[in-house]
Amino acid sequence: MDLHLRDLRFFETVAELGHMGRAAKEVGRSQPALTKCIQRLEEVMGSPLFERAGRGIRLTPVGEVLHARCRLLRAASDEVVREVRDFAQGSAGHVTLGSGPIAAEHLIPELCRAILAHAPRVKVDVVVGPSWELRSQLRQGKLDLLVGLAVDSDPELVSHALVEDVVVVAASAKHPVFRRRNVDMATLLEYGWALPSAHIPSRQWLDLAFSARGLPEPDVKLESGSIALLPRMVERTDLLTFVSRHTLALERSAALREVKLPATTLRRNLGVTHRRTGYLSPAAEGVLKLLRKQGKAFFSRTAP
Q1: Where are the beta strands (DSSP E) in the chain?
Q2: Closest CA to 241 of 227, 255, 261, 254
């Protein structure tokens, strides 16, 4: 006997609600019809999928396995429908684009302008967050593309470098550190810091840069999960921060100045990343090509 996607959808509803009557009402079917659906699935699986639990029902171990697989099957079927529709639509379609904070500020606005100019029927959803967090969504197929830190080694993902990102120590142009004749890492530890949250890669790199030299980690006075907030948080204080040179290049960051020190200079690549396998719609393919061709130029256009 074959599996039917409709039966699987009904099964998911029963599993989530834990009650046949409520599930029948939810999907707009009679309870006997829903019971037959479950019976068909149990016949295919050769085992009961539910057991009594008080006034409701719960999944058996076999039912738990099927429930986990249902989501994969449903995602696969949705992807097939989406692929056929996109093929028919050509340049129209939908792209879900993840963006790290630096790209969101410096590249995404220019990218969206270019997309609207080249393919006005394409809809783009932008999800902004830390690159490391968005990679998980990319692997799950929740994102089509991710613009942020390039991935060095991940068997599931492929990155195309767009531009070098250099992260440096910075402070208000009036900060006393700029009156010091000789500045080294120990000097920087004499001041308080405003830094990204501890789980953000640039913060982890900075902490390691100090500890690897036998020095304590920076004394963090202000901490933020939003890297974009850091320049505004320090421009009127005597705190040091750690930000991208792309951010320092913006006019609104003119109040900040780089503390030049090779030991606290992080060089990395920003790029566009997609799954190694899995479907990319024609619209997503178009955005990928646009990024690979013009991504570096998009960054340069944000400079004052």
Answers
A1: 50-53, 56-59, 93-99, 122-128, 145-149, 157-172, 192-196, 219-224, 240-244, 256-258, 266-275
A2: 227
- 3-state percent helix, strand, coil for the chain, nearest multiple of 5: 50, 25, 30
Give the residue among 68, 48, 53, 65 at the shortest CA–CA distance from 17: 53
Residues 280/144, Cβ–Cβ less than 8 Å: yes
Task: Return the SS3 of 173.
Answer: coil
Q: Which residues pair with 98 in a beta bridge?
A: 127, 146
Partners of 126 in the beta sheet? 97
> What pLDDT, in 10s, does the model give residues 186-244?
999 999 999 988 888 899 999 999 999 999 999 999 998 777 778 888 888 899 999 98
- Domains, in order of start, for the chain: 5-87 (1.10.10.10), 90-153+276-300 (3.40.190.10), 164-268 (3.40.190.290)
Residue 42: count other Cβ atoms within 10 Å of its Cβ. Answer: 18
Would you tell me the crossing angle of helices 31-45 and 20-27 to the nearest 10 degrees? 110
Residue 2, pLDDT > 80, answer: no
Burial 225-243 (b: 16+ CB within 10 A, else e): eebeebbebbbebebbbbb
Residue 223 forms beta bridges with which residues?
195
Residue recorded with tokens 């068909």: 40
- Name the DSSP letter for residue 263: G
The residues pairing with 12 across neighbouring beta strands, listed in sequence order, are none
Query: CB under 8 Å to 6, separation ≥6 — which residues?
Result: 37
Q: Which pLDDT tens digit goes with each residue over 103-130?
A: 887 788 889 898 888 777 788 999 998 8
113: its two tokens: 């302008």
